[in-house]
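In response to the reviewer comment on reproducibility (Comment 2.3), we provide here a single inverse folding case reported in full, input and output, so that an independent group could reproduce the run without further information from us. The structure tokens appear first.
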């Protein structure tokens, strides 16, 4: 029995060793597979960079495809090793119903424009004065004609990309940007900070744009007007698989991270780092030490612009040193340390065949030039805005004239002059009629304004535009209610104002029989209309289309008043006391609520169950009201955007720089000059743990 037990123990030990050996062998095999996948990823990323960013491929397309297929096969067989930054994940996103909003950590300001040497001299003078005579230099870069984007990398991985939007908030288009093969999902160089932001321009080159339009023609689709429009339209597509088929390209030109100035960075150094990190950049970069060198660079690049494979519309001029950039600062719209020196607009000559009139949402009548089609800056131009009758008089414009046409900013066609030597003697002066071209109502030109307006609120053109505005994305966001559908509903007598939209559910059977509609389209439209009932109060205010009240003013009103009835009851004097609402806007708000048709619209919305009230923003729900916060350094549990959103949700204000008006500085690791300045100004400094406590119990910390 003892021998039996010994033999049994030996056998058990043998089995145990066999199992351990098999497990070790399996682990070794798994580790080998993981290593092979990682090697393949690096190899594919390397060849993507050579092909898409540098246009210098080292292997054939067939060899590249073999590598990619092998990577995809290994990842599909070993899903535990799949990562978000793998090249195989570029078109892995699912189609979306809508883009989410993203708040930029630093506002994406627009550049100011200059058009001649005198304006350049003035810009240069302001820079010199602002720097107090300090030595500085400029970096000159090509101004790509595309769509600006902001890219976020965290610990070397691409985690988010967004459009400029309104400069403060853009659209999250991460899945669409991942389809751009020159955009690395994993950086090749160590990041200078845990979280960095890179700005760039998405564009199409001329060849890619031409091929895209050829494909659309073959499919019976309308051509895109120009590469920029094609790029903008593509980035708005909700299905990344469709975006992946479009010839989008990317060029990166700016880097930002918390403390970049304190670490002695310059724009030229940032461009070098972007290139080292294998991000796509332009080779056309010039360092200029004075105004004259900038002029020379501008002239050289204007001469080669037509030879480039992509569109540019000027030269971007930036002060190189980022510390000096911060010293110069910015206006509310644009940085003082940079400007765009625009190229001269291309000009064409054509015939003015007629002048048509468009009636807008507020009744404004705008004349539009109908032109003999002419090729200009790569696109065929048939129409050009004339703004108002004063512009027609200034140009002394007459139907039948030979006119000069340019593209403002290389985008919007405009008439800049008349060849009067070719004018026929019997051409008559054009006059804006006294009656609306749509409804026949008398046109009125208010004192001090340049446009005539149709005073008939029931004018079909105004109704059409007001409903389109009401349904637009920034307002009630009713998907599927574009120009053609609105026109279809109005022409069939189903709607007369935005309030009628909420009664359409009673007409389902009739709607689905309309041309261009169907069960699916009608169901989707009615569902979107129903969802819009719960839109935020500020969007409802904006959707009403009160003249002079944009989305920003609508937010101010929604924070000041709890309901549409409170706004209606407000006096002009009370409205003017609200910061940024002046007499003109206040008067417009009062006039809106005096109109019986507008009151009728509001009652329709109320009866339909549309939300006409805001959140209760009492001191209990907005405990940080009146408090200003600044963020610096890196937070562990929040991105800067998330932290800012949490503060704003509690009524606080987030500023980008420390001042005497700052109440709290939230400082994480890596805090630099903002921390130093906060100490100098005696600003309350809190760390991330205290910030979390503040969010959980804001009254406690605010009181202290």
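Designed residues, in position order:
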């Amino acid at each position: 029995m003892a021998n039996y037990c010994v033999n049994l123990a030996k056998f058990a030990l043998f089995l145990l060793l066999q199992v351990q050996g098999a497990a070790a062998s399996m682990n070794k095999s798994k580790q080998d597979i993981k290593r092979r996948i990682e090697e393949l990823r690096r190899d594919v990323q390397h060849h993507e960079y050579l092909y898409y960013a540098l246009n210098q491929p080292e292997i054939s397309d067939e060899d590249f495809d073999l590598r990619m297929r092998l990577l995809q096969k290994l990842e599909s067989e070993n899903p535990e090793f799949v990562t978000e930054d793998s090249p195989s994940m570029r078109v892995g996103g699912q189609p979306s119903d809508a883009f989410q909003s993203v708040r930029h950590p630093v506002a994406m300001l627009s550049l100011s424009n200059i058009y001649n040497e005198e304006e350049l001299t003035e810009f240069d003078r302001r820079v010199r004065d602002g720097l107090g005579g300090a030595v500085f230099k400029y970096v000159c870069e090509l101004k790509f004609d595309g769509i600006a984007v902001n890219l976020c990398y965290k610990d070397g991985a691409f985690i988010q990309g967004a459009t400029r939007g309104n400069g403060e908030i853009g659209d999250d288009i991460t899945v669409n940007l991942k389809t751009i093969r020159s955009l690395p999902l994993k950086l090749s160089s160590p990041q200078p900070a845990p979280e960095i932001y890179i700005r760039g321009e998405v564009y199409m080159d001329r060849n890619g744009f031409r091929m895209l339009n050829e494909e659309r023609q073959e499919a019976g689709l309308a051509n895109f007007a120009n590469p920029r429009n094609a790029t903008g339209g593509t980035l708005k597509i909700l299905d990344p698989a469709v975006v992946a088929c479009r010839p989008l390209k990317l060029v990166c030109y700016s880097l930002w991270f918390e403390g970049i100035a304190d670490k002695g960075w310059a724009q030229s150094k940032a461009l070098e780092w972007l290139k080292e990190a294998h991000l796509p950049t332009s080779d056309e970069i010039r360092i200029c030490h004075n105004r004259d060198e900038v002029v020379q660079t501008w002239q050289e690049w204007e001469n080669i612009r037509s030879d480039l494979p992509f569109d540019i519309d000027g030269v971007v001029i930036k002060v190189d040193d980022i510390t000096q950039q911060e010293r110069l600062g910015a206006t509310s719209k644009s940085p003082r340390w940079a400007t765009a020196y625009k190229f001269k607009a291309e000009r064409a000559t054509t015939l003015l065949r007629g002048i048509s009139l468009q009636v807008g949402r507020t009744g404004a009548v705008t004349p539009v030039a109908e032109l003999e089609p002419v090729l200009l800056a790569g696109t065929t131009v048939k129409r050009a805005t004339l703004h108002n009758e004063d512009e027609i008089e200034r140009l002394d414009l007459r139907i039948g004239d030979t006119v000069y046409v340019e593209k403002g900013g290389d985008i919007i066609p405009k008439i800049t002059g008349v060849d009067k030597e070719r004018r026929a003697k019997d051409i008559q002066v054009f006059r804006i009629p006294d009656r609306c071209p749509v409804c026949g109502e008398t046109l009125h030109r208010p004192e001090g304004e340049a446009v005539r307006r149709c005073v008939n609120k029931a004018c079909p053109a105004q109704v059409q535009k007001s409903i389109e505005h009401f349904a637009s994305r920034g307002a009630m966001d009713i998907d599927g209610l574009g120009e053609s559908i609105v026109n279809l509903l109005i022409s069939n007598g189903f709607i007369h104002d935005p309030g009628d939209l909420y009664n359409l559910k009673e007409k389902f059977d009739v709607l689905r029989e309309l041309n261009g509609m169907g069960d699916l389209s009608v169901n989707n439209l009615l569902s979107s209309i129903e969802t819009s009932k719960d839109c935020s109060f500020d969007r409802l205010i904006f959707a009403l289309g009160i003249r002079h009240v944009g989305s920003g003013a609508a937010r101010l009103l929604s924070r000041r008043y709890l309901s549409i009835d409170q706004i209606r009851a407000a006096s002009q004097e009370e409205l003017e006391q609200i910061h940024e609402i002046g007499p003109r806007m206040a008067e417009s708000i009062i006039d809106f609520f005096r109109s019986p048709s507008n009151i009728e619209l509001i009652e329709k919305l109320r009866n339909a169950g549309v939300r006409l009230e805001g959140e209760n923003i009492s001191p209990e729900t907005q405990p940080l009201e009146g408090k200003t916060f600044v963020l610096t350094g890196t937070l562990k549990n929040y991105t800067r955007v998330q932290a800012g959103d949490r503060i704003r949700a509690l009524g606080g204000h987030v500023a980008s720089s420390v001042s005497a008006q700052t109440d709290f500085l939230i400082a994480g690791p890596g805090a630099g000059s903002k921390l130093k300045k906060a100490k100098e100004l005696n600003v309350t400094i809190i760390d991330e743990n205290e910030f979390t406590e503040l969010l959980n119990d804001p009254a406690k910390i605010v009181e202290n």
